[in-house]
Amino acid sequence: MKEIKLKANDGKELHTYIWDEVINLKGILQLVHGSCEHSKRYDEFARFLNTNGWIVIANDHRGHGKTANLEKDELGYFADENGWSILVQDLKVINDYVKETYKNKKIVMMGHSMGSFLARHYAIDYSNTINGLVLSGTAWESNLSLRFGRRIAIARQRRYGAKNVDDFIWNLSYKKFNKKFDKPDSTGSEWLSVDKKNVTKFVKDPLCGQVFTTSAFKDLFEGLLYIQKSKNIKKIGNDLPIILVSGSNDPVGGYGKTVKKTFKKFKKAKLKVRIKLYESLRHEILFDIKKETIFSDTLKFLNQI
Q1: How many CB atoms lie within 10 A of CB 196?
Q2: Residue 185's pLDDT is what?
Q3: What CA dihedral angle connects 63, 66, 69 and 75, to 10 degrees?
Q4: Helix or strand or coil: residue 134?
Q5: Can you name the residues that pair with 233 across neighbouring β-strands?
Q6: Could you list the mean pLDDT of each consecutive 10-residue stretch along the chain, which spans 305 residues?
Q7: Residue limits of the Serine aminopeptidase S33 domain (predicted)?
Q8: CB-CB contact of 95 with 68 (8 Å)
Q9: 213: which DSSP letter?
């Protein structure tokens, strides 16, 4: 694995990882990580794909991992305004680099959690630049709740500033994910996976579990509202192979319910989509028990494109 920095449209340096120890190259997976984590966590999965002919490339988003400037309080912060669109544009910068570096090779985008929302937005705007789409731990939220959340975030940003670490909105959103799994000795992150080692690793990682800033919450709510509009979903190429994968015990996807809802919405828009729910797994299926099965199933999907 090598680490490079790619310049975003506004000059920001995007810390990017490339796993390219591949002998017979089949294609490139552009990985889009989730909120409050970073790309290097996917090392095991990326190495597995390398041994099976797939290069993996992933950038740390703004406000995450090594792209975040800790001295400028950037952890959990995207931008004062239009942060979500900026993140999507950053993905296009990575995609352009891939196209330039590995000419005429298949590119599949895989987004996890918030990364799946970004990947859905990317597919609306640029589906002609990818050959497939894997959406892990995705969801469908109430538009009413999203609009309400956005209003709160806008008001709080005016009052406290864009870089305010917003525990208030976090308590209304992320905190509820652990409700079903809470015990006296809970870390608050048990919702991520059945595998306790993974939960401990996440909790101990200084670049994981940050609380979003007020502006980042505003950006997230705006992004979700954008990707859930029927007219936008219809912009995704209907010949683009898409798979939704999720744990049946994942609170983000409403324990499977809102993953199925997303599937139905995509089907209604006549997209080429399929769905697979993994029994008893939680949110981070690539790090959970049975992860080898997820690795293998993902590879199968990639090789069918």
Answers
A1: 11
A2: 86
A3: 30
A4: strand
A5: none
A6: 97 98 97 98 98 98 96 94 98 98 96 98 98 98 97 98 97 95 93 96 96 98 98 98 98 98 98 98 97 98 97
A7: 25-288
A8: no
A9: B
129: buried, middle or exposed (CB in 10 Å: 19+, 13-18, 0-12)? Answer: middle
Predicted TM-score (pTM) of this structure: 0.98
pLDDT at 71: 87
Query: In the β-sheet with 54-59, what is the strand arrangement from edge to edge?
Result: 2-7, 13-19, 54-59, 27-32, 106-112, 132-136, 242-247, 273-278
- The CATH architecture annotation of domain 2-304 reads 3-Layer(aba) Sandwich (3.40)
227: its two tokens: 């990707």
Query: Which residue in this structure is represented by tokens 């990317």?
Result: 122
| 182, two tokens | 């809470």
Q: At what angle do helices 43-51 and 291-304 cross, to 10 degrees?
A: 50
Give the span between the Cα atoms of 239 and 31, in whole angstroms: 21
| Cβ partners under 8 Å of residue 195, min gap 6 | 287, 288, 289
Q: Is the dihedral of CA 140, 143, 149, 151 positive or negative?
A: positive
Amino acid 96 reads D
Buried b / exposed e over 64-103, threshold 16 CB at 10 Å, is bbbbbeeeeebbbbbbeeebbbbbbbbbebbbebbeeebe
Name the residue ranges covered by the structural domains of the chain.
2-304
Query: Which residue reads 């989509």 in tokens?
Result: 273
- The letter for the amino acid at 128 is N
Tell me the backbone φ, ψ of residue 131, rounded to 5 degrees: -105, -5
* Closest CA relative to residue 19, chosen from 106, 42, 66, 102: 42
Q: How many C-beta atoms surround the C-beta of residue 240 within 10 A?
A: 19
